[in-house]
């Protein structure tokens, strides 16, 4: 027997890869209203679009707070974010309302770890500076001490937050000849033995590492973690890399550390705010490489993220098991 079901309303806050849109439009479960742009939905349009929705598919640039939840109203069953990070959502408020949350762990781990390695090498080996010198005529001849940087061979690498991505970074860095792999976080990880990872206090990691890579989640505890005191414990020839969230770093303190020689150089895929204003002091520094939050940006990864977020949304609407539900 065929049971009649009510078509549910879904708001999608941005153009997403067609793999995801196809799943939603062919599901027969929901009517999709889309903010049909590559640019973020303005706040008023978000509040309007979400009104009465049963499902919301959002991005990390959408702040999902009490106001949005209130605007959505009691129909809202599920929020599916096209990201593994969920620091843009007011989790306590979402929980209070019994709304389920889907996210995209694992499927972006390899792409993000790969980009982190690329950023680390680009920063430590001064690739952007070199490219610029080739173009602007600064390349006069081969010079023994010109554009020298730091290599991974024999180095000590520290990973702050040895989660899915942190571990994938560690696995990729080890074959470069890394001598010791240290990590810090809230708890020691049994899987760290695969990379001979040593669980150490943060201060030990900072004082002993040649490369410090941040891959933890942004939480109240990690917000501003990389501050003056943090950088002052690092070696003067150390390389700092952040591909987690911009707010983990105090950017004024990082600027000081980079300009005073407290640390050697920094590579950031994430900043505060995003985009970083083009006149930001960090962008004046040769020893700071800034990327526009492209950790997971491969065509296939973004397609799979869109598929997963669409399937999470549908499961949330239908009250079935989600492929990736955030348990909180
Ligand atoms: P996981 O949850 O697997 O890992 C997060 C890690 O953060 C955990 O190992 C956790 O360690 C650690 N952590 C939490 N609190 C602290 C703390 N106080 N101090 C140190 N470490 C802490 O997530 P993923 O690896 O999948 O993703 C990590 C983050 O990477 C995301 O939250 C997101 O912000 C960012 N990201 C950025 C991308 C980009 O494009 N640049 C792409 C994808 C993700 P413990 O278990 O010990 O608490
Ligand atoms: C995430 O998923 O949290 C990233 O920042 C973008 O892929």
TrEMBL record:
Protein name per UniProt: Glyoxylate reductase/hydroxypyruvate reductase
Keywords in alphabetical order: Oxidoreductase
Entry's Gene Ontology molecular function annotations: glyoxylate reductase (NADPH) activity; hydroxypyruvate reductase (NADH) activity; NAD binding
SUPFAM superfamilies in the cross-refs: Formate/glycerate dehydrogenase catalytic domain-like, NAD(P)-binding Rossmann-fold domains
GO CC, any one term: cytosol
PANTHER family assigned: 2-HYDROXYACID DEHYDROGENASE-RELATED, GLYOXYLATE REDUCTASE_HYDROXYPYRUVATE REDUCTASE
Sequence ranges assigned to domain D-isomer specific 2-hydroxyacid dehydrogenase NAD-binding in this UniProt record: 117-295
A family per Pfam: 2-Hacid_dh_C
Keyword Oxidoreductase assigned: yes
Segments forming domain D-isomer specific 2-hydroxyacid dehydrogenase catalytic: 10-325
Family named by the database record: Belongs to the D-isomer specific 2-hydroxyacid dehydrogenase family.
């Amino acid at each position: 027997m065929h049971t009649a079901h009510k078509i549910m309303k879904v708001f999608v806050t941005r153009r997403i890869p067609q793999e995801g849109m196809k799943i939603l439009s062919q599901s027969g479960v929901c009517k999709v209203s889309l903010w049909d742009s590559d640019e973020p939905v303005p706040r008023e349009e978000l509040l309007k679009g979400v009104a009465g929705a049963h499902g919301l598919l959002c991005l990390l640039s959408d702040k999902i707070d009490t106001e949005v939840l209130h605007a959505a109203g009691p129909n809202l069953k599920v929020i599916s974010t096209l990201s593994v990070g969920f620091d843009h959502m007011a989790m306590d408020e979402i929980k209070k309302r019994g709304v389920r949350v889907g996210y995209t762990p694992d499927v972006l781990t390899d792409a993000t770890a790969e980009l982190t390695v690329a950023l680390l090498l680009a920063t430590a080996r001064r690739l952007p500076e070199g490219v610029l010198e080739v173009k602007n005529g600064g390349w006069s001849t081969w010079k023994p001490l010109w554009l020298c940087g730091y290599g991974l061979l024999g180095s000590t690498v520290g990973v702050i937050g040895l989660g899915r991505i942190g571990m994938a970074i560690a696995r990729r860095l080890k074959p470069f000849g890394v001598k010791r792999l240290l990590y810090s976080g809230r708890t020691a990880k049994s899987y760290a033995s695969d990379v001979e990872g040593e669980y150490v206090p943060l201060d030990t990691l900072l004082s002993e590492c040649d490369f410090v890579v941040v891959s933890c989640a942004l939480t109240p505890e990690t917000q501003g973690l990389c501050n003056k005191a943090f950088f002052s414990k690092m070696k003067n020839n150390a390389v700092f890399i952040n591909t987690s969230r911009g707010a983990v770093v105090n950017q004024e303190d990082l600027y000081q550390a980079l300009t005073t020689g407290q640390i050697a150089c920094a590579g950031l895929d994430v900043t505060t705010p995003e985009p970083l204003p083009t006149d930001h002091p960090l962008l004046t520094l040769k020893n700071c490489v800034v990327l526009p939050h492209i950790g997971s940006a491969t065509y296939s990864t973004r397609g799979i993220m869109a598929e997963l977020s669409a399937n999470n949304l549908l499961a949330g609407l239908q009250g079935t098991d989600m492929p990736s539900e955030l348990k909180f």
